[in-house]
């Protein structure tokens, strides 16, 4: 009986410890974002001043703007490339298909710093100036494998008879894609887009090598601030980003629950 009880408690205890391990640093970050002093480990009182300073910091504003622009552009481009490649692999027979798929996911197994150095060398060789173009290109290189794998997994579950039925009803290739394939793949495409945007927004290694003057992303801007001393201003910025993420999750979950209730009725 004792062993069975211990075995029964093992899963919930490990689960709780896992959640504590994941979220305890975030809780500490949020708490010390309201600290009145400059210390991030010694509590001296409650204050909202660090939020005001974070919102008024020109460097953080510029870094956030650059990261948002690059994340949106790279997410759109990488999703378009990954979706096209996934549909080609699943729906079209062509020579060296396996080699093509392997090359697309190769950046996943290569160290990102190797990709970043290669991207920098290619940029210098081509004579391009470091800036938005190189940032977006580098982030697309890192994100395409994820979008390709997500959409390919979803496309592999589609019944090919749906395309044949649409063609028998007179639909051409574009209509089949827009009215049959795209609606079925839309959840996977949206997931791939969000994931690639998050990967781009958080990227540090590639951004370090391919960012130029005036296009410093937020992670590099925060790292530069750490060199001069860690203050609760960074905690405040992190707390605001956490709040945005939680709000986005609540909005998505709200729409999902409404959809589920609507289909249930």
From TrEMBL:
GO terms for cellular component: plasma membrane. Residues 64-252 form the ABC transmembrane type-1 domain. Required for the activity of the bacterial periplasmic transport system of putrescine and spermidine. Keywords: Cell inner membrane, Cell membrane, Membrane, Transmembrane, Transmembrane helix, Transport. This is Spermidine/putrescine transport system permease protein PotC. It is a multi-pass membrane protein. It is found in: Cell inner membrane; Cell membrane. GO terms for biological process: transmembrane transport. InterPro entries: Bact_Polyamine_Transport (IPR051789), MetI-like (IPR000515), MetI-like_sf (IPR035906). Coiled coil: none annotated. CDD domains: TM_PBP2 (cd06261). The chain crosses the membrane at residues 7-34, 66-90, 102-125, 131-155, 176-198, 204-224, 236-257. Belongs to the binding-protein-dependent transport system permease family. CysTW subfamily. It comes from Mesorhizobium zhangyense. Pfam families: BPD_transp_1. Gene3D superfamilies: MetI-like.
